[in-house]
Structure formats: C-alpha cells, structure tokens
C-alpha cells in the first residue's frame, strides 16, 4: 500500500527553494525593503522649480521639499530679501540655490543636509541685539544633543535638542558663544552678527579614542568605571574577515575563541575563564547584544559589514544590568547607520582554502602499514591449526557474528587455500605498496574550498530620517565534493525624527541559507585500507566488492569478503559494490534555515535631560532538513539485503513489503522564537556650570523564549516522482525485526524518535543604573537588577536575589597637579565590584516526568520520572572585583589599559550524591564554586608617522587561572579524572586539569606506572617478563598527578601595521600557552593503528627503549592490554606543553588615490590581498597544531587550511 505525501521533493535548487517560501512573508520582506530604499530617493532628486516674483522663503521651502533638506534661517534675516524669479529644470541643489541667491545680499551653506542662510559679506555687525538659531555638530557633521551652549559673560544657557539645535533671542551681535559638556572639548565661537550658526565641536570621547556602549546607554569612557574594550570600524576593516569572530580575534585582552578540534562546530568565545560547571546547560560564552537588545544569534551568523563597532564588557559594572545572562561578559555590537548624502558601499571577497596537508597527521606509509598488517595476520594465524579454523571466527552467511576482515587477510587466505600462488601474492602486494588511498581521497574527493561573498550597502540621512540597508550573498563549495552552501542576508534599519522630541527606529534582519551536506560516513578518508584505490591510473573508478561500513538504518553489522562473494552469486540480493565517489552523491542532506529579527525603538524627550525609551525585538528561526537515499544507493542496497530472507532449498526470497520498492526519505522541521520588550527612563543632566554630572536610567524588561516540538517523518519505499511511500509496520520492524539470511537472526529497522516536547520560558526584570561625575575627575557608578523567571525555586528568597554592582573612578589626568606632567595625556584609575548570575534551563524546581506506553501492552500507560524536584534551585552567582588603569601617553601616541580581576562563582550547579531514600542517587544542585583570577594588559601605538609612512602596533596579553574552590562529589575512581576533567574535579585544583598516572618505567617494551604507594602496576620476573596475574588497574585518585591546565592560561596577540602612501601592510600574530597536552601515542590495545611509530616499536628483533604494540604482546598479558595501554598513554611521561605562536594573517591593501577615484565617480576604492594561517610554531613539536589537537586524548585532527583571500571595497 502507498499513500501520497504533501511535501517537498529532494534536490531542489536554491532558486526553487526560495520560490516555495510563503508568499506573504516574501511580500512583507520585499515591501519593507522597498519602503526603506525609497527613503533615499529624496537625496538623489534633481530640482525643478519655476517662480516669478515669489518670496525667498517660499522658494527655499520648495527646494527643501524636493531635496528632502531642512532650511535654517530667521524671519528677521529674510525680512529685507528680494523677490525671486527663477526657472530651473533637473538641476542639482547647489545649481538651483546659486540661481536663487545670485541677486540676494545673503549667502548660503549646505551642512548635513541643511541649507543654512546667513548674512552676506560686508554687512555691518554693530553692537545691537539679534535673534540666533544654531546647530552644534560633531566632527562627522552629525547633530550633537545635550551640549551646554552659553553666551559668554552672562548666565544665559541653552541645551541642544535631539537634532543639535539651540536658540537665543536678543543676543549681542558681537558676543561669544561657548559650547561645553562632559563629552566635548570646551570651545568658543564669535557671533559676528550672524543669525544662523553652525558650530562644530571636538568630541572629547574621540580624543580619548573611546566611547562606551553598554547597550542600555552610551557614555563617555572618562565617566565609566567598568572594564571594557572597544574595536572601532577602522580596526574591524583592517583585514578581510571570514566572519565577525575573525574580526574580533586578537583584539581584546582576555577574550579567547575555543576552537572545535574537529571543525564540526563554530568556535566559541570565552571571556575571563569559565564561570560554571554546566557548560552544556548554562553555557560559557558572553551574551551577544545588537543595538541594545540581546540576541540568540552567534557571532558567525552576523554580517561583519553591518557592524560599526564592538564593545566587550568584562566586569560586573557593565554586565550586572543584563542580569542572569551576562555573568560570562557581554559583546555589544553597534550597527552602521546613514550619515549625510546617499552612500553606496560595495564589497566583494573571494576565498580559496587549500586542501589539508595530510603529512601533518603523522601517518605511516602504505608499505609500512602492509608490513604491519602482515605481522598482525601472521601472529593471529599462528594461533590456529589451519586457515579454515581461523577464518571461522569471522563468520559466514547465516552467522550472526560476521566480522569484517581486510583485503590483505583475504589475499593470505586465497594463498593458503591454493586459489593463488606466491607470484600472484607477491605481485599483488607489490602493486598495493604503490597505492595510497588517502592520496586518492585527497585528489578525488577533496577540493580547494572556494567561497565568494558580495555585499552592497546603501546609507544616508537627512534632518528627518536616517537609513541603512545592506544586502549580502555568500556562496561556498566545501572541502568534500558535493558539499556547498548559499546564504542571503538582508539588514535594513531606518530612524525617523518625527519632531523635535520624538524619534522612531524600525528595522529587520533576515538570513536565509541553503546547504547541501553529504553523508558524514563518506567524509572519512580512512573508510578503506590504505592500499586500496578510488580510481586507477587512467582515472576510472575502482569498484570494491565490499567495504567495512554498514547501512546505519538497520541493526546489521558489517560483512567480509566471503559474504560479499556469496551474495554476488545470489540474484535476489543487491550488489554490495562500493566506490566513495558514487556514495558521496547519495543521501545528500538539504538543510534550509530562515532566521528573522525585527526590532523597533522609540525615544521621546519628556523634559530637560529626561527621556523615555521603549524597545521591542522579535526573533524567529526555522530549520527544515530533508535527506533522500535512492533505492540503488549503497546504504539502501545494504539495508534491503540485511532485511531479506532466503531459503536456499526453494530458492525463495522474502522481502519486507514496500521496503525494497523505493528509497529512504527523512524530513525534519524545527523552530525557535523569542521576544524582548523593554521600557526605560533616561536622565542626563549637568549642574553647577558643569561641575556635577548625573546620568541615570531605570526600567523593566520582559522576555519569552519558545521552542515548539520538532516535526519529523521517516519514509521508506519513497518515490520522489510520485511523492509516495510505503506503509510499514514500524513498531514491529523496530522492536521485533525480520529474519535476515545474511546475519542468521532477526534484524530491526530504526525509526524516528517518538518523544515530543515543547519548551516555554518567561522572564521579567526591573533594572536601574546611575553614575555621578564631579569636576570631570571623580566617578561613582552603580546598578541594580532583579530577575524573575519560571525556572527558580518555589521559595521567594531564591526568586528575587538581586544582582548589583558599584564602581569608583578617578580621572587623574584632570587634576591640577598633572598639568605639568606633559607626557601623560590621559590617566584614569577605576574599580568595580558586583554580583552577576547564570541560569540552568535544564534543571527545574519541580518533579518532571514523561508519559509512556508499555511495549507489550499498548493500552497500559505509565509515567517515567526524568528529574527529581529541586525546590531550592537558584541562580548560579558570580562575584566580580576589578581594578583597572586606562592610560594615554606622549600626546596620545601610546595608549592602553591594565586590569586585575577576581571572579568568584558560587552556588554552581553540580552533580551531587543524595540519600537513596529520596528516590534518586544523584541530583544537580547548587553546590559548587570556581575562582578566576587574572590580569589583562593592552597597549597600542601609532609610533611613527611622517605623513607618507606610518607604523603602528597593538599588543594584548591576558593571564587567567581557574581554580575549583568547592565540589561536593569526590569520585573514588582515578579513571574518570583522567578521561573527563571538565566533569570530574578536585577542590583547590585547576579546573580542566590534565591528570596523569606516575610513570614508573619500561621493561622489555612493557610500560608500567606507580600506584598511590609507589608500587608498580606490573611485576616482572627475573627475565624481565611481566607476570600477568600481577597487572593491576590503578583506581585510587591519590595515585594521579596534576600536570597543569588543559586550557591555556595566557593568550594574546600582536597586530603590526605599516602604511606607505596608498599601501597598507598588516600582520596579526596570535599566541597562547601555559597549558599542557597529552603526547600522541599508539594504542597498545588494538591492531587498528596507523601512525608512523609502528616501525619504531619494541619487537624481539628490535629490542629498543620504545613500547610494544598489541601484536607484540605476550599471550598471557593481552587480556590486560587495555589497562596497560590506557595507563601508559595517560602517564606523566606523555605530557607536552601546549604553547604556540601563529601568524594568523597577513594582508596587503592598496587604496586608490582620491583624485583618481573622484574622476571615476567614486569616493574611495580599496583592493586587498590576504593570507590566513601561514605559519606557526608549537612547543609540542612534531608538526602538532594545538588549535586542532584534542589535548586530553592526545589525538590529531586535520590541520587548519591555508586560505588566500582577495577583496575590494568601492564607495560611491
């Protein structure tokens, strides 16, 4: 029986997939983009006007309307203006204004999309009284709100509004205007009889090169007491960035990116060490904030071209206001916005990543592996009287214990059974020695990774609106053939100045990605023996009759050559032939992801210095995956054979009805969403002629996260043409199975999980923060927040624990006694203390259970308790103390910061033993503590600049030590400390330590370790042979030694810049160390080894100081091989340092001369060539790269590829 499915067909192109998306969603996105783009049109409009004897005011208003400009004038100034007669068509704004003002005794200027009308030359200023209107702008021609404007010699003052405007009536025409404020350099301007003033002030923050953006507020660094690092747009754009993480790497002291050694997941940022034992549940990465609101996006998912600056908040003063999500620090991202006339920025980047260098894996050669495998065969063969007896252990058709054996084993078997002669054997082996499966794999399966990225951004502003829109397309081909990805990103944000007291911002950020991912089983380059081949010398596919890989869908195992040969003679079974190039095209999974983030922000000025701000953000992510295996794919052929019955007597075949008539189609769909809603009041005011400055805010925030159930379906007998599948008895197939002729017993078929769950969490918070500055010298800051969530204990005292911080700052350089210290440009001392928290969403205060059906009696339902109640569940708490110095020396040529911190994390959730009478043996409760101590140092300098040639450097360095202060569950078995140091730890020890057995020595190739009393784990007889009955497993943790941290204790980077005329040369070195790793050793408990050391092992013929391998062990001790091997591999003799230095990237950029760029109608153009991962040095030696090395297991992974990049940026 078959039935139709209303679902997508596999193998759709990107274009087709996009076309299948919901039409209304597409229309909404398109309309949003269209509306935002239309906001630019006013800036590009030409002016067409026709007036006769019209007033100047009327004509100017029409020009402003068409150009979307603002006109700045006074009625008094226009009172004596002449009437205007003008007729222009499709003229620029400037051309039209020149015609309008040619007969006027007035002049105009255009500043920041504003037409400013002023008195003409030669007009007598006099000593009269005039009305003044003006604007205060920063050095980027942006409005500067909150500036104190004073008429010198009087007590008349005004504070600039949102648009930087101010006004005075009856001001002295020859007076002086003074502009002052905590964030600007005090500056005076002569009125000179002008009614309209445009005043540009120097931003004091930019002089100190930093402004703090905490997400809740923007504040001058001089008024801030917390530890913060800023990365500006110039630094972010020094190099071509693979993603935002690479843009940040090496720029912030104390921020490290933990690489996944296998490359299976994105790097994870860690700031100032680990603050929790629950890395999987709580997480240890900093909170990501975009334009003031937290997001669930990760750094690698954010378009780096949309980011204007990055602020990394490290301590409690900055982070406590975000509550329970910010104990690990915060990364605040500020996105770009429009500035002035329409600007179009175009980026195009091309990446080529080379294939991995397989030599770095330290593998033995094909010839050495053949010799080793032959030794293994000889050793095994010697244990049996004849060939048939030996190979009977590998099973045959109808035997449930079928085991795989290699082509070399089969070749030896054929020789001993007389099927081939010695000449055939020797010629075959000689040919095999020339083969190299890994080289074949590299040549035929791997390819240089190619990536191309295109980004176009439109930005601009007028006096009434500010808009930024970017479109990004990213396409890549993976290292393994048939792997590819495509992603499209839209970011659009527009702010509107509704009137002089109301501002509104709306935006959307959406990303759609479509990936094709091959079956991970075929991404392994060791799925066949080293002496096998993928293609012959002519490029033809080499078909293998069997391979040591099953289907993964059934409970069947692997087959061997004899089984494969017999199946080939049975017409009712499918071929088991295999070639990886064919298999790679089978079962390609198509992964689709759509994420949307919409946001709105409304600011209203309520009163002098007081404003109201409301923000809303909604995020949703949807993932749809589908995978299809054709009926003739290797895995489906294997699965069909595994579930096929056969009667040799009647030659009758039995198939699972419907299963063998089509392919396998699996589909899953998941979704997650969250929203944040925040309201706050902001107050910023100066008192006493600028002596006192107060900045405060208070508000509340609501947040919800929702994870609906995942929808999964699995169909067999699937036909992609008719979109139909077979109806199977999945319950019977998955539990009872069907008789299998090949494996001699029933084999089952896996089905999708039947467990369904939905996760909903809600949070409510109130918060406040305040800062006070006196005489621009002394700072006091504080913040307070209370979080409520549905995850905390039932007792109110656990629900309402406050999170708070306090800080002090001293701007030493502003003191009078520092005025004579000319070489100190800026010096600030600061200290903070505060309490933050973490939350574990996997633990609840209530008992939880799932409802299940009995497998035998379907009508019988019961509950399965999944978690015991924890009524005292509370936040993990982090107390943080920070002492810091910010400095700028020698005329701001040398600047940086030094921070010391003490971070104590308590009430950490840890697995703890319970009284068995409560119904459980263990429970995760708040019972642990960690201590992080560290120091951070950063220094930067533009230390040489003669105009044409410039040299600059930045150095960051950080040290961190994480110690386990409290743990209530001490393990009694040494092996768990050795194998899982992030799950098992001891008090007063370094967290994530490398624990090792004490090495005793090696006798006759047998290594031994010492127990807690110093006794050897192996006793030897007088001839140096091990006494098997004496071999013991070391179980007492006291026998272990702590060799140090597996996590680097110091990290840092050196960024070196050279610029000569239009050329920029940048180097980024990164370094890390203070940690240890296990040395790579060969496993002594198995013959499945392939490292180069197999030729240097201890043998009877080669009695050197090395260890034996499994093939060389005495029969009496082979039972203990796993114990000997584990204790040797994990002994302190096999520990190396993890320090390294890397040249992460080097880039050469060329900036097109502005004179030439202007000739071709461009504002700027830059071309960049860059190389990544060019060189490294490692203390471990032997071509070990610690970044992609599994430090605790002592195993290598594929090295990071060298990447070559070319990109250009054009600004129109």
From TrEMBL:
Localisation per UniProt entry: Cell outer membrane
InterPro entries: Beta-barrel_TonB, Beta-barrel_TonB_sf, CarboxyPept-like_regulatory, Plug_dom, Plug_dom_sf, Secretin/TonB_short_N, TonB-dep_OMP_SusC/RagA, TonB-dep_OMP_SusC/RagA_CS
Any one GO biological process: siderophore transmembrane transport
The Secretin/TonB short N-terminal domain, residue ranges: 69-120
Keyword Secreted in record: no
One cellular component term from this protein's GO annotations in UniProt: cell outer membrane
Main location: membrane
KW Transmembrane (keyword) present: yes
PROSITE patterns: TONB_DEPENDENT_REC_3 (PS52016)
Membrane topology: Multi-pass membrane protein
GO function terms (MF aspect): siderophore uptake transmembrane transporter activity
Keywords in alphabetical order: Cell outer membrane, Ion transport, Iron, Iron transport, Membrane, Receptor, Signal, TonB box, Transmembrane, Transmembrane beta strand, Transport
Pfam families to which the protein is assigned, alphabetical: CarbopepD_reg_2 (PF13715), Plug (PF07715), STN (PF07660), TonB_dep_Rec_b-barrel (PF00593)
Similarity-based family: Belongs to the TonB-dependent receptor family.
Protein name: TonB-dependent receptor
């Amino acid at each position: 029986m078959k039935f139709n499915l209303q679902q997508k067909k596999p193998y759709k192109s990107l274009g087709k997939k996009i076309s299948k998306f919901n039409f209304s969603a597409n229309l909404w996105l398109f309309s949003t983009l269209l509306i935002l783009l239309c906001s630019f049109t006013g800036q590009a409009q030409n002016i067409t006007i026709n007036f006769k004897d019209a007033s100047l005011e009327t004509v100017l208003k029409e020009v402003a309307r068409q150009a979307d400009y603002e006109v700045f004038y006074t009625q008094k100034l226009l009172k004596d203006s002449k009437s205007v007669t003008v007729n222009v068509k499709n003229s620029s704004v400037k051309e039209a204004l020149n015609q309008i003002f040619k007969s006027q005794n007035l002049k105009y200027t255009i500043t920041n999309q504003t037409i400013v009308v002023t008195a003409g030359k030669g007009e007598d200023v006099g000593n009269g009284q005039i009305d003044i209107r003006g604007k205060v702008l920063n050095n980027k021609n942006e409005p500067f709100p909150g500036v104190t404007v004073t008429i010198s010699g009087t007590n008349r003052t005004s504070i600039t509004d949102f648009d930087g405007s101010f006004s005075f009536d009856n001001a002295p025409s020859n007076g002086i205007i003074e502009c002052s404020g905590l964030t600007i350099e005090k500056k005076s301007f002569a009125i000179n009889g002008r009614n309209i003033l445009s005043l540009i002030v120097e931003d004091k923050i930019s002089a100190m090169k930093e402004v703090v953006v905490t997400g809740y507020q923007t504040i001058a660094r001089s008024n801030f007491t917390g530890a913060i690092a800023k990365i500006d747009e110039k630094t972010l754009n020094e190099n071509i960035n693979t993603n935002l993480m690479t843009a940040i790497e090496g720029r912030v002291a104390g921020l490290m990116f933990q690489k996944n050694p296998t490359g299976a997941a994105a790097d994870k940022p860690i700031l100032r060490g680990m603050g929790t034992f629950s890395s999987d549940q709580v997480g240890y990465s900093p909170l990501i904030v975009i334009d003031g609101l937290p997001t669930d996006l990760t750094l690698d998912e954010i378009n780096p071209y949309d980011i204007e600056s990055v602020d990394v908040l490290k301590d409690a003063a900055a982070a406590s206001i975000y509550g329970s999500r910010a104990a690990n620090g915060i990364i605040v991202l500020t996105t770009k916005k429009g500035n002035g006339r329409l600007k179009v920025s175009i980026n195009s980047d091309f990446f080529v990543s080379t294939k991995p260098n397989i030599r770095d894996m330290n593998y033995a050669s094909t010839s050495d592996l053949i010799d080793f495998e032959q030794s293994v065969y000889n050793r095994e063969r010697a244990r049996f009287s004849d060939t048939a007896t030996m190979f009977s252990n590998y099973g045959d058709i109808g035997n449930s214990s079928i085991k795989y054996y290699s082509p070399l084993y089969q070749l030896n078997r054929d020789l001993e059974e007389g099927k081939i002669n010695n000449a055939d054997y020797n010629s075959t082996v000689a040919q095999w020695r020339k083969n190299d499966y890994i080289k074949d794999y590299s040549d035929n399966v791997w390819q240089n990774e190619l990536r191309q990225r295109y980004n176009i951004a439109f930005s601009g502003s007028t006096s009434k609106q500010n808009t930024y829109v970017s479109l990004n397309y990213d396409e890549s081909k993976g290292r393994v053939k048939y792997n590819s990805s495509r992603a499209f990103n839209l970011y659009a944000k527009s702010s509107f100045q509704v009137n002089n007291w109301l501002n509104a911002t709306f935006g959307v950020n959406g990303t759609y990605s479509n990936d094709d991912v091959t079956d991970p089983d075929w991404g392994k380059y060791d799925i066949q023996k080293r002496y096998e081949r993928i293609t012959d010398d002519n490029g033809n596919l080499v078909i293998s009759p069997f391979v040591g890989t099953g289907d993964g869908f059934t409970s069947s195992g692997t087959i061997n050559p004899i089984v494969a040969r017999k199946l080939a003679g049975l017409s009712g079974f499918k071929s088991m032939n295999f070639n990886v190039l064919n298999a790679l095209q089978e079962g390609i999974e198509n992964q689709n992801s759509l994420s949307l983030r919409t946001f709105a922000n409304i600011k209203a000025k309520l009163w002098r210095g007081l404003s109201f701000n409301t923000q809303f953000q909604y995020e949703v992510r949807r993932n749809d995956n589908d995978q299809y295996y054709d009926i003739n794919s290797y895995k489906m052929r294997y699965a069909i054979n595994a579930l096929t019955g056969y009667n040799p007597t009647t030659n009758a075949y039995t198939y699972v009805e419907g299963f063998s008539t089509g392919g396998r189609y699996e589909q899953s769909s998941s979704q997650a969403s969250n929203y944040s809603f925040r309201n706050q009041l902001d107050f910023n005011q100066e008192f006493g002629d600028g002596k006192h400055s107060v900045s405060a805010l208070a508000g509340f925030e609501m947040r919800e996260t929702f994870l609906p159930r995942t929808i999964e379906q699995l169909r067999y007998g699937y036909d992609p043409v008719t979109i139909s599948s077979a109806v199977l008895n999945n319950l019977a197939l998955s539990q009872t199975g069907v008789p299998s002729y090949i494996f001699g017993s029933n084999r089952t078929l896996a089905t999708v999980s039947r467990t369904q769950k939905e996760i909903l969490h809600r949070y409510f918070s109130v918060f406040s923060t305040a800062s006070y500055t006196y005489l621009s010298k002394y700072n006091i800051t504080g913040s307070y927040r209370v979080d409520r969530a549905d995850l905390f204990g039932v007792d109110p005292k656990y629900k309402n624990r406050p999170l708070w911080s306090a800080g002090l700052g001293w701007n030493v350089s502003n003191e009078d006694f520092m005025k004579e210290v000319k070489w100190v440009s800026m010096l600030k001392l600061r200290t903070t203390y505060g309490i933050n928290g973490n939350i574990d969403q996997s633990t609840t205060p209530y008992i939880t259970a799932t409802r299940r059906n009995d497998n035998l009696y379907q009508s019988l339902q019961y509950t399965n308790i999944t978690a015991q109640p924890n009524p005292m569940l509370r936040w993990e708490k982090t107390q943080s103390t920070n002492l810091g110095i910010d400095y700028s020396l020698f005329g701001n040529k040398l600047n940086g910061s030094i921070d010391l911190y003490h971070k104590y994390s308590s009430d950490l959730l840890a697995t703890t033993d319970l009284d068995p009478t409560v119904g459980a043996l263990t429970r995760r409760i708040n019972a642990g503590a960690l201590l992080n101590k560290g120091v951070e140092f950063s220094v930067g300098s533009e230390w040489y600049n003669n105009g044409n040639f410039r040299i600059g450097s930045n150095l960051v360095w950080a040290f961190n030590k994480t110690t386990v202060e409290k743990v209530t569950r001490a393990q009694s078995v040494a092996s768990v400390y050795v194998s899982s140091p992030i799950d098992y730890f001891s008090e007063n020890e370094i967290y994530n330590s490398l624990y090792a057995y004490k090495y005793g020595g090696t006798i006759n190739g047998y290594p031994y370790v010492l127990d807690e009393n110093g006794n050897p784990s192996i006793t030897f007889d007088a001839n140096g042979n091990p006494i098997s009955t004496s071999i013991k497993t070391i179980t007492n943790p006291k026998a272990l030694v702590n060799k140090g941290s597996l996590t680097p204790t110091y990290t840092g980077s050196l960024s070196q810049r050279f610029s000569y005329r239009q050329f920029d040369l940048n180097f980024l070195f990164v370094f890390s160390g203070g940690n240890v790793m296990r040395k790579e050793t060969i496993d002594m408990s198995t013959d499945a080894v392939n490292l180069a050391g197999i030729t240097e092992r201890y043998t009877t013929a080669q009695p050197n100081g090395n260890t034996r391998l499994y093939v060389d062990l005495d029969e009496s001790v082979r039972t203990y091989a796993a114990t000997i091997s584990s204790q040797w591999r994990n002994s302190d003799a096999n520990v190396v340092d993890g320090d390294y230095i890397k040249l992460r990237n080097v880039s050469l950029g060329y900036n097109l001369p502005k004179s030439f760029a202007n000739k071709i109608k461009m504002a700027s153009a830059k071309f960049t060539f860059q190389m990544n991962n060019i060189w490294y040095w490692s203390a471990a030696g032997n071509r070990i790269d610690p970044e992609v090395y599994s430090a605790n297991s002592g195993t290598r992974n594929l090295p990071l590829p060298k990447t070559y990049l070319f990109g250009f940026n054009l600004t129109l």
